[in-house]
Structure formats: structure tokens, C-alpha cells
Amino acid sequence: MGTPELSASIGEVQRHLNALCADIGTRVAATPAELAAGEYAAGYLRELGLSNVTTHTFPFNAWGYERSEVEVREANGWWSVPSVPLAMSASTPEEGVEAEVVYVDATPERIVEDIDLEGRVVLLWGQFGQTPEKLEQVQSSGAVAAIWVDDRVPVSWLVAIGTPYDWRRYLTIPQVSVPYFDGWRLARTPGARVRIHTRVWQEAAHSINVYGDIPGTGDGIVHVGAHLDTVILGTGADDDASGVAAALEIARLLSQRDEQPLSTVRFVLYGAEEELSEGARQYVLEHHDAVERSHLCVNFDAIGSAIGHNQVHVTGPEELAQVARETPDYPCEVSVDLTPYSDMFPYNIFGVPSLWYYRVNMPNFRYFHHSEHDDLPAVSPAVTARTASAAAHVTWRAAYAEPTWHREIPQEQAAELRKRASWFYGI
Q1: How much is the pLDDT for 14?
Q2: What is the DSSP secondary-structure string of 183-251?
Q3: What is the pLDDT, as a whole number, of residue 398?
Q4: In angstroms, rounded to a whole number, what is the distance separating the alpha carbons of residues 231 and 328?
Q5: How many other CB atoms sit within 10 Å of the CB of residue 25?
Q6: Where are the beta strands (DSSP E) in 277-427?
Q7: In the chain, which stretches have pLDDT less than 50?
Q8: Helices marked H in 287-380 — which ranges?
């Protein structure tokens, strides 16, 4: 049986992008906007006639901020630096904090060794990495606050930094991120003093997962999904309204077919991805049986950049990577690797191979990542539809025909998987 013609509609993709970004807007986890995005997705799956359409809420801390100010004193006076708090970090006292800033290169494992940070503000170049060690060191260093620079994005605007949900206990001092070039200027100002005022709020709330099925004749399941939430900046048109639009469009394409799949195709839209795939983790923990029967997770995360290069990251056997390479009319770079930074990772922990569709417009990244510039003008509905068409063909091969790959995580990937699962989730 040959693969059918499965061409995604640019107009349908645009409809979903508009609904998520123009109508709903920024969708931080556990806020009414994220809930509205979940309700939109559930309503559309019901409109298509999918079975078992379900919304599942789970406890999660909502957060936001009312104030974030950083001022730097130089010889000629004070100058202001744009800033945004790290997700779920602490507020400053009402009077703020004022102290000398000390630059630390965050690459070494021991970032505070032999550096006196007592009563100072630490400026860190880079991310906290794959373990909480750096955050623990900052918390226990005696520093009164921390300023982070995302060194992956050399831009002049703010870049929001998320943190794994389980690591919020390491965010007991005020922590903010600043733009790359402002951080550069600050790092080159010896003896500079900074004033920081932040007012961050948190409250107990609920995030949401949504799923629905095209039932199969057999026991197998293919999961296809993307995430509903955004960081606190921008409307997340690329990250990840583009992915949600692709998943919903594949649901439309397959639900219109007369034939029934051999394996159930389950479309899952996850909440709280920006705090390290908490929604996907909740899903796999709540649905052991479905995950055990799954032989593929197709994940979309940031696929819509108007200019760039398509990538498909494969966690699983070489045979699965070959399927991705053979996708017709879809130029892409296919790599066999493992990453904990999107919603396929919890599936990988339970032995499910995955394809992560991704798109870059600078070396391995996107210039508008986690910023106000991740908005509708940054994405192309045509590019998103092309990826949806490619992934629809792979999904068809996985669900409507017998898979040509084994349900396995190769040994080398499995060893790395165990380490990262321990680092991020403590399992």
C-alpha cells in the first residue's frame, strides 16, 4: 500500500496561528491564556470528530512579575538595563538590593570556587546547564542576587530564561536575565554597582494537557504533539504555536481519511513545556498503558521560522532515522541524538523512540528565541504547512502501515538518557 497524498493547508495553519497568537496571545503555563489555548485545541479536535477528546489539568505554580528593574552605576551616573526575572525566581526586598557586581564565567562546573560573592551580585555568562549544581552554588554563595546572560543569542533585546519546574527550590535569591550586549557592557565595567528591584508573584494553579484519538484496529499507539504554553515574552508564534498548528492540521488530514489506522493516532497538546516539559511528564505518568503501547512520539517544537533550515532529531534506531530521510519533498538535516529540552524526552525515558521536528535560522538556534520578537511576523504558515505535510507522511507510515523500525532506544542513547533523567527529574 503506497503512501497517500497528504498536503497540509496553509490557510488552516494560518487560522490556528491567528487563534493562538492574535486572539489569545502570550500563554504562560497555568494562566487563563494557556487554559484558553487548551480549550481551543480540544474544541477543534471535537470539531474534527476525534474520539476520547480529553482535557486533563494538573497542579502547577502560575507566575508572573510586576516589576523588574536593573540600574548600573558608572563614573557618569546610573544607566538602566532591560531585565526579566528567571521563571519562578524570588523577588527582591521592597527596597531592592544594591551591591557590587562580579562577573563569573558560568562554563566551569565550579562557578564560585575561589571567588568571594558574599553580599555581591553575580553576573553569569551562559546557562545553568543540565544539573542544578550551578543554581545550588549561586544560592549558597552569599550573593544577594544573580544576573544571567543567555550566551546563545547575541542580541540587543531581552531573552526569557525558563527553569525546570523541580528546580524552583534553588531560586531563593532574586535572579534576572539581561540582553546580551547590556551584559557585555556590564561585564566590562570593573567595580560597577547595580541596583535591582523585582516583584515576582507565584500562586498555586493548574496547567492543562489536551488529547484526542483517531482509533486504530490494533493495540499500538502513535503520539503526535506540541506544546500550548509560552515564556513570559512574546506570543510564541514559533515556540510553539507553529507546532500546535502542525499537530492540529495532521489531525484534520488523517481524520478525513476513509481508512482506519492499524495503530491509534493520539494527538496531545501539552501544558507547561517551558518549565522542562512538565505537561509531557504528567501525561506519561498518568498514561502508563498508552505509553507502553506507543511505538513513536512525533513532536513539533519551533518549526515555523520564515527563513532557516529544517531539522529532524531522532531518538531511536537508525531505521527510524532512515524513514525521516526518505520523506518526500522535505529538505532537512536528520540527526540521531538525544535532548531533554522538549516534550519527547519523557516518552524517551519510558522507551518510546521519537522524532522532533525543529527549524533553525542561525547555527542550531533561532534569533528570536524566547523574546518579544517571537510573534506572527517571524513565522511562515507555508513553512509550517510543509513540515506538517512531511510529518503526516511519517505518521501515516507509523500508524496505517506496519512500522519498519523497532520500538527501542539504542544502548548508547539509553545510557545518556538515564543520566539526564536523573539530572532533571531525579529518576
Answers
A1: 98
A2: HHHHHTSTT-EEEEEEEEEEEEEEEEEEEEEE--SSS-EEEEEEE--B-SSS--IIIIIIHHHHHHHHH
A3: 97
A4: 34
A5: 15
A6: 294-300, 309-315, 333-336, 354-360
A7: none
A8: 288-292, 318-325, 345-349
84 neighbors 232 (Cβ within 8 angstroms): yes
By DSSP bridging, strand 97-105 and strand 121-125 are parallel
Residue with cell 545510557: 415
pLDDT of residue 189: 87
The arrangement of secondary structure in 10-62+205-425, i.e. its CATH architecture, is 3-Layer(aba) Sandwich (3.40)
pLDDT at 190: 80
pLDDT at res. 191:
82
What residue spans in the chain does CATH classification 3.40.630.10 cover?
A: 10-62+205-425
Q: Where do the CATH 3.50.30.30 domains begin and end in the chain?
A: 63-202
The predicted pLDDT at position 112 comes to 62
Nearest to 237 by CA among 375, 61, 143: 375
C-alpha distances in angstroms, 250 versus 59, 72, 210, 225, 391? 29, 50, 15, 10, 8
Topology of domain 63-202 in CATH is: Glucose Oxidase; domain 1 (3.50.30)
The per-residue DSSP string of 82-134 comes to --EEPTTPBPPPTT-EEEEEEEEES-SS-SSTT---TTSEEEEES---SSTHH
Report pLDDT for 283. 98
Report whether 348 contacts 338 (CB < 8 A).
Answer: yes
pLDDT of residue 134: 87
